[in-house]
Amino acid sequence: MMNKEKLMEHAESLEEKELEWERQGQLLARFYEAGQDVTPPTNFADAFRPTDRILRCIDERTKGGLPLAGSGILLGRKEAFRIAREMQVGAVTSHEGCGAAKMAVERFNGVTPDSVVERHAKEWSIMLAKELGVHYAGHLDVAPHFHNARVAYYDASGSFDWSRVKDLPAGFRISRKYLPPDYAKTEIGLAVSIARGIHGYGSIIPLRDERNSKFILAAIGGKEELPRMVEELKSVAAKYYGSVIIKTLQIPH
Ligand SMILES: [Zn+2]
User: Fold this and answer.
1) Domain that holds residue 151
2) How far does residue 67's CA lie from ligand 1's centre (Å)?
3) Residue 186 lies in a domain
4) ipTM attached to this prediction
5) What are 71-107's pLDDT values in tens digits?
């Protein structure tokens, strides 16, 4: 009985992933056009007007506020505290099904049950909030239950939020403004591996048109800083054997 239920759930989720892939495809069309520069959607400037200073994950399902993978769980206490202070974080969250928390726990423990990862994610954020002297804003629910992002935004502004512009696809957000470059690469790599793995679209990707199925790393920066950001992204993209492409979006004046 258990097995049958599990199998059915799996089939349902594949169908859900296929539908979401198609829906995202429309939003991603501008990113798959020829050339590296993406034509920004209307009201692109609205993406740079943050609504709050609550620390969230880089996960595309924890939109808004300020992003750090697992609210900084991969950084260690001292560095997370330093960066969160610089970001002027006003509160800290954790969330269910956090890939960064899983990575942080499993690099010490090996394969670990989800319930243990959830507890670590919460404990980390509660501890960081306490050290910062701000409040813990709760363990967020996420939807859908899988990662639907096909893009990771690498943001030099420190304020980018795709969810404020309706024509931008959901994506991971990696803050180049606040992160040491080497560590930013860890977050970008995490985003790519989550998105292309079992918790993302996984097995359906190779069945899709190759040109329009590559994962997108989108650098968001000023005209002068974009070439350097592209170079930084290239070093991460190289690890994924041509399944990742790099695009740029210029911050509006
Ligand atoms: Zn997370």
Assistant:
1) 24-250
2) 10
3) yes
4) 0.99
5) 999 999 999 999 999 999 999 999 999 999 999 999 9
